[in-house]
What we know:
mainly beta; 35-stranded mixed beta sheet; two-stranded antiparallel sheet; 39 strands; 50% strand; rod-shaped; disordered N terminus; disordered C terminus
Amino acid sequence: MASAAVTTDNSATAGGHSRSSGHSIVIAGDRTQSRQAAHRHSRRVRVLKIALPAAAVVTAVIATANILGNAGISPSIPPLEIPQIVADNLKMHNPHYQGFNADGGKYWVKAETAQQDLKTLTAIHLQGITGELLDAKKQKTYLVASRGLFDNNSNVLELYDSIDVKGDGGLNAKLTRATVKTKENIITSDQPSTIIMGAGTITSNQLTIRQKAKEYTFVDNVRTHMKPKEAPAGSDDQSAQQSLPFGKPGEPVDVTSNRLDIDDVKKTAFYTGKVVATQAGATMTAPEMTVTYEGAVAPEGGNSAQAAPDGDADRGTKVKQILATDTVVLKQPNGETATSHTALFDTISNTAVLEGDVVLTQGDDKKAVGDRVDYDQKAQTMVLTGPVVVTQGANVLRGRRLTYHRTTSKMQLSSPADVSSGISAGRITAHFVRASAKGSPQQTDDDQDQSGDGISFGAAFKTDSNSPYDVVSDKLDVDDVAKTALFTGNVSAVQGNISMRSQELTAFYTGNAGIGATGDNAAGGAAASLTHLTAKKKVVVTAKDGQTATGDWAEVDVKKNITTLGGAVVLTQGKNIVNGTRLVIDMNTGEATIKTEPTATSGALMTSRDGDSKGEVFKAERPSAVFYPGQLKKSKIQADSWQVRTSP
């Protein structure tokens, strides 16, 4: 029979657990689980009673050991190896990066290995780099470098050590460091670099290559070697090349500067900062120089990987023009120099133009100045215009146009009209200075024979033998081979107290007078020095006192300082007139001697006339004269052995 105990607290057990009803009623049930929980709790309590004191002891021991170890009293505890994450653990093999640009271009970069930079998660270290940049026009640029750093966020590639950059058309860059902006297709470097193109070679300390815009900038210690295209067969005329002072076709050009900007779209190369260009021994210096070329530094399309490093000559460039500005100085191997504000050399037309305060110098004493000088290789000419002044030592030529023909060594000086400037035709002048004479030259037997048996005048024609000659005419033609200078057109020559007029006057000289030559002998040789003069056509010689002598021709021996007139000679002083066929004037003493040398054709017909140009014609073996008694003493004429007719 079942039994139940009920208490006042109404406690009951459900599911094996006792439950209190709150009225102190206890219902008997299964207590197995409660007993198990009580046993587990008891065990934990017993373990903790032992473990907690033990842990405290161990902690105290460790702390004491560490203190003693730091003090060097007891041995240290071996460190524990903690595993770390390093870049070597993240190395990638044969990674490949590529992307596309907004203009349709694309790029890719490969490497043998890549390592993630844990400090900068967007940076990747690359080893054994190769890459290719392709713009919208299919222009390719190839990259090779030993190592580099790629920023995946900015798409910037830093390259280091043994860098090669090659582009279509023969572009080849040798760099030690470079920054490649892959999206913009821009390559920069702040380290020494060498660029090899179809047009030549460029070295600099800094560079920027903008492949999209076809622009190249080189800065600091820029050195350029521009090689010419192959010259056509049979075009190696050295004499023709020498006609241009610079920019000769078929000759390489070397340039140094502080900066070089190349625009391969506009076909220009702009040099700035202490520009020095050399070609075939000639040197040109200027603050700025612009080279215009045809062809392309990096032609579109093609496969540069198959091109030779130096580029294909047929795909390279050819210089068209060289323009130097802002004070240009040209120096030739022979010492000739030229200065101007600007200098333009056209290699297509083979011409050169120097403008602005042009000064041409040869040797120590030759100089020509003007506003502009034009060189023409085909015509082999040099033309200097403007107010032209040519000096050689103390000798001076003045005009408005000087033309020099190199093949014939002939020079012409004139003063033509300039319609554009409203300048009418003018005259040219020449000033010749004689070398100082040590004394009056001795008269030779020939001179004495010339003065004998004639009419001798006084010292009216005396002049200083060292006095310079001043010549004015319409034009001057100089032949530097024949050593002659021909003055034409109302020529007037003055030496001291004596003047001579004629239609033509030829000056003979020794030495070298050519100012326009550009050959090796242009600046060599002695300076031009007068030896004698020849006047033709209506020659008139006038002394200071008004005494005149006319003839068909005249010869002046500059060394002896003797003038000889010939032909129908008439010597006049006031109303006194003397006729003859030959007049010899010794300008050292001033004496003038006239004589007649009859010929088979002329019969020595002479005319005696008075001041009214009326006289008598007669035949005589000796000179004839008409004197007025009132002026006879003034003439100081010696009448011994003369045939003299006086007026009635």
